[in-house]
């Protein structure tokens, strides 16, 4: 990736962090590259011309960092992230134990105000997210063995969010499909990343319910996960090529064709990505 492209991608990430602060300071703790990519995709489809500024930030008080200034893309993405994270926190409180549940409880109250503000902007997204997180809870509490059904709620939420990027019917259809597949990838990646931890704690994980995987047979689990993950990434690539006339295409190409497969291979080798995703899928590529 060229240095200028890499710097723009980081500036979008930092801009999203600042935009999250407008919903509430606690929401900045939820910052992720998943939603930074969604913001960049919004900018690319709608040809958003960016204004970039430099100033100190909460994480780098001495060194100035570049960030993309407020835009519709960042406002939408920040709101979508607040909505998504709030419902994920509620789900973690209901389903998980230990440190993860404690962490969720700590964030629940501070995230309520950002969620309510985001909900006022996009009530339809809040409703779709709530409905699908309820479905997720039923799927998990029922110990559903189907990986496809387990991934469906996350995929449906991301599909609804991505579809909001454009009003053009054809692009909306393509973006909805891309969002669905991106959400599915996120769920599968997280399930694979957490599989050993979930086996020890007894938490639900559909990969542990597959034939030959009950005792956390990692060889079988990774084989099943590999097939599902690479099918998903292949379909994502097929949907993406239908989008044309994009700004920032080299960055989007980099994430779709190189970054996400790299994350997949890292997980399939048994390396971890747990915790806040501090490294974007683009960061693994050599800057030229």
Overview of this protein structure:
Helices cover about 65% and strands about 5% of the residues. The chain has 9 helices and 2 strands. A hairpin with a 7-residue loop joins strand 1 and strand 2 (about 65-70). Residues about 275-288 have low confidence and may be disordered. The chain has a two-stranded antiparallel sheet with strand order 1-2. Helix 1 (about 5-20) crosses helix 3 (about 70-95), helix 5 runs antiparallel to helix 6 (about 145-165) and helix 6 runs antiparallel to helix 7 (about 170-200). The radius of gyration is 18 Å and the shape is globular. It is mainly alpha-helical and about 290 residues long. It has one domain (about 5-275): Farnesyl Diphosphate Synthase. It has helices spanning about 5-20, 35-45, 70-95, 100-120, 125-140, 145-165, 170-200, 220-240, 250-270; strands spanning about 50-55, 65-70.
CATH class: Mainly Alpha
Query: What's the Cα radius of gyration?
Result: 18 Å
Number of helices: 9
Into how many domains do the coordinates divide?
1
Find the structural class using helix and strand composition. mainly alpha
As for the CATH topology, it is Farnesyl Diphosphate Synthase
Q: What level of helicity do the residues show?
A: 55-70%
Question: Unreliable stretches, pLDDT < 50, 5 or more residues?
Answer: 275-288
Secondary-structure element string: HHEEHHHHHHH
The major sheet is characterized as: 2 strands, antiparallel
* Order of strands, widest sheet: 1-2
